[in-house]
Amino acid sequence: MHKAGFVNIIGNPNVGKSTLMNQLTGEKLSIITSKAQTTRHRIMGIVSGDDFQIVYSDTPGILQPKYKLQESMLKYVESALSDADIFLFVTDSVDSKNVNIEYVERLKQMETPIIVVINKIDTIDQEAATVLIDQWLKLIPQAEIAPISALHKFNIPKVFDLIISKLPESPAYFEKEKLTDKPMRFFVSEIIREKILVHFRQEIPYATQVVVESFKEFPQITKISATIYVERESQKPIIIGNKGLAIKRIGIEARKDIEKFVDAKVYLELFVKVNKDWRSNPSKLKGFGFDV
Fold first, then answer.
1. DSSP class per residue in 170-239
2. If you ran DSSP here, which 8-state letter would residue 84 be given?
3. Which residue, 4, 42, 83, 275, is the most exposed by fewest CB within 10 angstroms?
4. CA distance 19 to 149
5. pLDDT tens digits along 134-163
6. Backbone angles phi, psi at 176, to 5 degrees
7. What is the reported pTM?
8. Which residues have CB under 8 Å from 14's CB, separation 6+?
9. Other CB atoms closer than 10 Å to residue 155's CB: what's the count?
């Protein structure tokens, strides 16, 4: 008997969805930072065994969209609600005080199996954890509850076992060697964007989009050229930094992570360009590969 299915990870921003995805797949496929709204796309990670295949899907956090880019991000969440074989609804000890009742009610009406993953359980005591578990059992009575710490890999095997137990009988959807549905260029751009999220504050990280213009593999080295797009002329010198120090730091840190990801020596060239108000322009968003 072979099992296979789509396991869609949903929840509010900054609850640890991407960390959980990376732990479950054993690969760093999603950006992890302390900032909310770091995931912009729906990213699939595929885990296969002799008699199973799990297609995980990391999604942007559920939010009230303020501009076109966020509307596109919410579309990925909506698509994840429509095609899951299993839902991983991720919450945490802080997030549980701000329950998104609209999405909880929608999940309750579905026949799809639900696993409520309470992340960051290591940050509260046993009594508080018990209260949280009871709260979620009342909110979604049909759900399985899995308290975890994604950061410290606590109880991740339990989540995996629950998924396997609920996975439907099916042949594999992808070749067993395949790890993701996204091309290498996508992950290179995400690694560069992660460094921007880490090193810049306020609106700068959210106003940037990274495009890999060229990706050429040679026997001794992989040469990559990428452009960091910003929305305003005033943002360009901030990304470049005094005497180019800021963009140099981004390049050095990104290159090291890209080398680990592609398992090859990398030469990385970065440019900064202005693409005015790209987050609010549907045609520009389409050009960047967003669904609008």
1. ---SS-TT--BSS-HHHHHHHHHHHHHHHH--TTTGGG-EEEEEEEEE-SS-EEEEEEEEESSGGGHHHH
2. -
3. 83
4. 10
5. 999 999 999 999 999 998 999 999 999 999
6. -65, -25
7. 0.81
8. 34, 35, 36, 61, 95
9. 18
